[in-house]
Amino acid sequence: MAHFLRHYGSLIGMAAIVLFFWVMLPDTFMTARNWLNISQQLAMLIVVAVTMTVVMVMGDFDLSVGAMASLAGVVAAVLFTFGWPVWAAVLAALAVGLLGGLVNGALISLIGILPFVATLATLTMYSGAAFMVSDGKTIFGKAIPEAFAAFAKSGIPIGTVADKPAVLPWLTVLALAITAAVWVVLEQTTYGRRLYAIGGNAEAARLAGVKVAWLRLSAFAFTGVGAAVAGLMYASRVASANPTQGDGLMLTAIAAVFLGMTVTRDGQPRVLASLAGVVVLGVMDNGLTQLQVDSYVREVMVGAIILLAVSISALGRKAVGLR
Amino acid sequence: MALEFTRRELGRGFGRALVLAAGFAAMGAGAAWAQGEKIAVITPYLAQPGTQFYVESFQARAKELGWEVNVIDTAGDVAAVISRMEDVVAQGVNAIVLNVDPAQVGAGLDAAAAANIPVFGMDAGADPRIKANITSNGYAMAAETSVYVANRIGGAGNVVMFTFDAFPPVQVRGAVADAVFANHPDIKVLDRITPDVSDGGIADSRAKMEAILAANPEPGSIKAVWAAWDQPALGALQAIEAAGRQGEGIVITGIDANPQAREAIAAGGNFEASVAQDFAGIGATTADTVARVLGGETLRSGVIYVPTKLITSANAAE
Prior knowledge:
The complex is a heterodimer.
Chain A: H1 2-24, H2 32-56, H3 65-81, H4 86-111, H5 115-134, E1 139-140, H6 146-153, E2 155-161, E3 164-169, H7 170-188, H8 190-200, H9 202-207, H10 212-238, E4 240-241, H11 249-261, H12 271-290, H13 295-322
Antiparallel strand pairs in A: 1-4, 2-3
Helix pairs in contact in A: 1-12, 2-7, 2-10, 2-11, 2-12, 3-4, 3-5, 3-10, 4-5, 4-10, 6-10, 7-8, 8-10, 11-12
Chain B: H1 2-30, E1 38-43, H2 49-64, E2 68-73, H3 78-91, E3 95-98, H4 106-114, E4 119-122, E5 132-135, H5 138-152, E6 156-162, H6 168-182, E7 186-193, H7 202-215, E8 224-227, H8 230-242, E9 251-253, H9 259-266, E10 271-276, H10 279-294, E11 303-305, E12 309-311
Parallel strand pairs in B: 1-2, 1-3, 3-4, 4-5, 5-11, 6-7, 6-8, 8-9, 9-10
Antiparallel strand pairs in B: 10-12
Helix pairs in contact in B: 2-10, 3-4, 5-6, 7-8
């Protein structure tokens, strides 16, 4: 019992948050439609957070994901204006994401720049590139093909909810598919286990024959492509693209992974824990909006909850360490 | 030792859950439950001065009407506007007021339409799914200043135009000024410039104006500068003053009457006129329009204009 609570204190806190909104908003919060909404709203953040988890298990992180999401969105949108078919523009944007991720990986792993410095620099570069590509403008309206925008508006029909037809949004499906794929990579493959080994002790991993440099480099491909996917999802959702629209994803995604780390047994980043972190942040946004809490108060509260969860977890680990 | 460990950890686990829950309970107690209509105002741009004006006057009018208004700022995030729209649709608000281009929040408009919740635009843009957009008449504003220019220069002389056709609300201003100047056979549009606005619009407009001044050194060769918004007008003013040509009587006009422009107009120099949008009026009229629709009225036009005001040195300090 004690063991259970020690490990699941944060999880209970998260459940308490959900329960709180359920009680405060008895008619509108715990409804299928609201949860479908929340899942769709969080889809972009889920993709960035779970792919961010891949580099965070090695103790690294990637500050450039928000800028990359913006860049991928405008790259696709600008290619649309050149008359490229949707699939080709999307592939090109994903290629930009892959390339950007590998550049980050090479800077960190081969040249040996600290992730903070390397990805801060590429953040600026990718953001500048997004402005260059788009000429600083928002690309919207007829420039965005109907089929591209329709992706975010449609989904798999799942019958009716409250007498209205409901769909499982494609955004949600895609986010969950990517989560599942990253979960398999991190939890079920030797590749993933080796990344965790690097996070535990990079030198020991190297001496044990793990190809640390190569693995670190390749792991950043996940954050790059993940950011590009999220940027495309974002562009589809707003049926437009501008050079800053994905920027907010980065800090929130890192916060979600940290929040998730408070749930895990050993304080390590885990894919499903990151997913839980994202859901908590999203539920707070949704619930507090419905409770008509002022936007600015909402932001302060979200930050405070993150700090609270992380500090309690840090204090817990410190106490264990002192023993 | 083992026992103590477990007990402490037990307390910690409970602690985490309790602290989170307690924080929420405290906040929940503070949430008010009013009886009136629930209206959500959603904007990514609350930090901008104009937006604050109309949101405040909307709130003031809503208070008189006994509404419960929830103002939601997404701090520049347009996708979050869609998310918050979905949230307030789930919450079951009576109406949603937007201050963002409807073309970018189509998914949110669909969600509101599916729930039969009317959506209004407060200086937002037109869309079939929006009951009405309450805004200033860009055509009328441009007519005010371009006619002011034509009258001031006696219907004759060279005019420099600063326009920005890539942005639809500003494009209409340029189109009206084109028509007014074309209607005066002796007015010649010397140049129609699209400044680079990535620096805010003043610096590049100044550089462009300096080039034009250099190309037209004769006093009287430029009679007026008509700008589709205030920043190029301010840039042109700086260029004219830096070139020492403020004594030639070049007439400058802008649109929007931002504080910097008002200051320049009040100073009585070349920058003579601009047009002020009635932001407070837009907010109050939006609230009144929401009230009309909630009262069962069907609106004929999807666009409702709030009158604007020509600002000259006579009233710039107001």
